[in-house]
Automatic annotation (TrEMBL):
Its main location: membrane. One of its GO terms (molecular function) is glycosyltransferase activity. Residues 280-448 form the Glycosyltransferase 2-like domain. It comes from the Eukaryota. It is found in: Cell membrane. The chain crosses the membrane at residues 496-514. Gene3D superfamilies: Spore Coat Polysaccharide Biosynthesis Protein SpsA, Chain A, Vaccinia Virus protein VP39. Residues 72-252 form the Methyltransferase FkbM domain. GO terms for cellular component: plasma membrane. This is Glycosyltransferase 2-like domain-containing protein. Keywords: Cell membrane, Glycosyltransferase, Membrane, Transferase, Transmembrane, Transmembrane helix.
């Protein structure tokens, strides 16, 4: 009787402690999950917001293509890995990060990315890269200052006050000032792990160790095994030395941009051994002496420049060829002008001419531009940025019209909605699940050359743009870019806005229901309209 109450109390106490332990375990798991979310938010809020990956890399032609091999030295918590996973497919990426806390966050990030359906593979390398291998490289960590706040090893305040203290723990910079980490060189790593493969994109951001990491890749640089290099460098002297090293190995500077991030000055160095994907512009013409000069000039002065502009003529009887030659001669005075060629096509018709021009083109990307349409000044950068997404097979700009009338809002409104409604009504399944959209030729459509020929190019029949959109959707999405090209409204000035809009609608619907042959004579070519107009003036 004496021990029975004690045993009961002990059993109840044991049950209470066990339940409390389970509650604490659940609370710990919840706090750990919330901490992980907070770390991700803090990383994106203080880093990604100011880096602007799309602008820094894609706009200048440095981007990660499909099936690339990417190496990042100083992967931190995996921000750049997330960018690669968004823009590319089938890539292999090695992420080097020796700091303990960012390494833990990096592993979690890469586990999530490896689970996505992009075909990318991300590999963690918990070592540092420098100019020579070592068992224990002194690693200078960020630290919390005596007054509170996060400082780097140059004693620069990154995030002051209590917020910096929290940020240091979230980002993992709560280690001692100097820690010892295993170290390797990129040359020895590549020799062991990548004996038969070069590096397509090398990114370096290791807070003061960028120069040493690049020096450790001396053999790869000398063998031309690294195609593109992007580095975030602190210190102007270090930036100059790295620039001299890259130029000495045949790299071409794309851009060096000075940026202040989190209170410190960094230099974004972008270098490429190989050129970015080249862009060829194909312009079909037939008696376009009045408009081809402006179109050529605007296309030729795009920044960056297109590789070439090919004028595919269908048998002009006016001075189109002479105007093209004179314009090309005048544009030769501009720095780095594109090649401008005038080619005569064996067959007339817009589809046949654009196919013939595409056969002559050497660019990786093709832009099909009407002779009365003007591109935006950054058109080449837009084309590269959009087609860097492997999910996009075909794209085009939005259109604004200029002409005698001051208002063409009904046409502009129709161009905005016509991308969707024809296929939404008559091809609802493909519109919903295959992203089938409709682009017209005056939207300056652009496509990868290999995919253009994979579907056989343009049809030689009228409505070649509708046919192209209809056939290319099994290769990827059709996208309308949120930028504008300016197109002449001469067609609408001649026939009237309402009539031309109705004819457009009738042509699209007739094509989709298989009755286009009956519509062919309703809408003569633009050159025929010009000749009719000139004859009327002569009379």
């Amino acid at each position: 009787f004496f021990f029975r109450p004690l045993i009961a109390v002990a059993l109840r106490l044991r049950a209470f402690l066990w339940s409390m332990l389970q509650m604490l375990r659940c609370l710990w798991l919840m706090l750990d999950a919330l901490w992980d979310l907070f770390c991700q938010w803090l990383t994106w809020a203080f880093v990604t917001k100011e880096v602007h990956w799309d602008r820094v890399y894609e706009q200048h032609g440095l981007f990660v293509d499909d099936d690339s091999l990417v190496v990042e030295v100083g992967a931190n918590t995996g921000i750049f890995a997330g960018y690669v996973n968004r823009v590319a497919r089938g890539c292999t990426m090695y992420c080097f990060e020796p700091a303990p806390r960012p390494l833990e966050q990096l592993r979690r990030q890469l586990e999530r990315l490896n689970a996505t359906q992009t075909g990318n593979r991300f590999v963690v390398q918990p070592v540092a890269l420098a100019d020579k291998p070592s068992d224990g490289l002194p690693f200078l960590s960020f630290r919390i200052s005596g007054w509170g706040g996060l400082q780097d090893f140059y004693d620069n305040d990154l995030i002051p006050g209590t917020l910096g203290t929290w940020a240091s723990w979230a980002l993992g910079y709560n280690a001692p000032d100097v820690v010892s980490v295993p170290c390797d060189t990129l040359d020895s790593f590549a020799q062991a792990q990548l004996p038969d493969r070069g590096i397509d994109f090398l990114k370096i951001d290791c807070e003061g160790g960028e120069e040493a990491a690049l020096q450790g890749a001396e053999f790869l640089l000398s063998q031309g095994a690294i195609k593109q290099v992007a580095a975030e460098v602190q210190g102007k002297d270090r930036c100059d030395r790295m620039e001299a090293l890259l130029r000495g190995h045949g790299f071409k500077q794309v851009e060096v941009e000075q940026t202040r991030m989190l209170g410190k000055t960094e230099y974004y160095m972008l270098y490429a051994r190989l050129h970015a994907p080249s862009v060829s512009v194909v312009i079909p013409t037939l008696d376009e002496e009045g408009s081809i000069q402006d179109t050529l000039t605007v296309a030729a002065i795009c920044k960056p420049r297109p590789l070439e502009i090919i004028v595919a003529d269908g048998g002009s009887t006016d001075a189109t060829e002479q105007v093209v030659a004179e314009t090309a001669q005048a544009l030769a005075a501009f720095p780095d002008p594109p090649a401008i060629r005038f080619v005569r096509c064996p067959e007339s018709g817009r589809g046949a001419q654009m196919n013939h021009g595409a056969q002559q083109a050497a660019g990786d990307y093709l832009v099909f531009l009407h002779a009365d349409t003007r591109l935006p000044k950054d058109a080449v950068a837009i084309v590269r940025r959009v087609l860097a997404d492997s999910a996009v097979a075909l794209a085009g700009f939005r259109t604004i019209f200029s002409g005698q009338d001051s208002s063409y809002w009904p046409i502009a409104f129709h161009h905005r909605i016509k991308t969707h409604y024809p296929f939404m009504i008559l091809r609802p399944y493909r519109w919903l699940f295959h992203h089938l959209r409709l682009l017209f030729g005056d939207q300056a459509m652009f496509v990868r050359r290999r995919e253009f020929w994979r579907i056989g190019g343009y049809s030689h029949e009228p409505a070649e743009d509708i046919s192209l959109c209809d056939r290319i959707t099994h290769l990827g999405k059709i996208r309308e870019v949120d930028r504008y090209v300016e197109t002449s409204a001469r067609r609408f000035d001649h026939y009237g806005t309402t009539r031309v809009t109705l004819i457009h609608v009738a042509m699209v619907l007739a094509y989709l229901v298989g009755q286009f042959d009956r519509m062919r004579r309703m809408y003569p070519p633009q050159s025929v309209l010009d000749r009719r107009r000139s004859r009327a003036k002569d009379i």
